[in-house]
Design brief:
two-stranded antiparallel ribbon, iron, Peroxidase
Length: 319
Amino acid sequence: MMRLKVTFVLFLLILPLALANLRVGFYRRSCPNAESIVRAAVRRRLSRDKSITAALLRMHFHDCFVRGCDASILIDSNSKSSSEKDAGPNLTVRGFELIDEAKKALEATCPSKVSCADIITLATRDAVFLSGGPFYFVPTGRRDSLVSDPDEVKLPGPTLTVSEAFQAFRAKNMSMDDMVTLLGAHTVGVAHCSFFLDRITRPDPTMDRGLAAKLRSICGAASGTNPDPTAFLDQATPFAVDNQFFKQIGLKRGVMKIDQELANDPLSRRIVSGFAANATLFRTRFAQAMVKMGNIQVLVGKAGEIRKNCRVFNPRRRI
């Protein structure tokens, strides 16, 4: 009963954020089992790969911050043109086969009804929930992009300051609170050593010494088969969507520069402290921020298309 009450409260908080052209239950008539089909695919994958939650969160973010939440990140490159997948920041994005699996099942049940953009959004929501995070209602009705250009991929990097990173979020109509909240997704993330090596190869007063030693050990194990090892961004509960990330960076245990900066910078440290002290607050705000991000520059109505295969644009009809 308590879980239902919490879910209902989240619904009331999130609903005003939904765009007029997106709505909760968009597929209620056209594909009634759409959300359960996506959830089943996520559940199967998560049962054998707990890291898929981090992968989906990253995919969703990288998609929404380039052209909007339109599944442009899913398009494969071909001999004639490159796609967003070829852009440097996206070379380590993964989880595409999960989206393919969900799309195949949806096409078998209700052909050409559910967009790939909505599949990404729903799959990410379900992975968050199944990893201990909040359940939140997702407005759907997005359509898929007809463009995927690697030159348009310009994403905030891990070495930026808080104010520099915020410029990218503000351009998408996201607040500082939204940015800090969404970076809380690092609670289930990993980072390659190349992204933080400079912080552990020389003394860094903003990093806990014990963590620095641990990271040097991880990165020192690089080999021919694994030239760029990874480390968890949350050293406490790396597979759970919770507020531990904020507690960790408050103890100088942020792995990447931008993570630690959140706890140190006057622009963001109050928000970090609030989340570290209040798990419920983080869960509520994370749900709200995810819905808000999922509304960035969406295609609706007759714009774009509903792809049959998430990796390729539909064949153009001859007039």
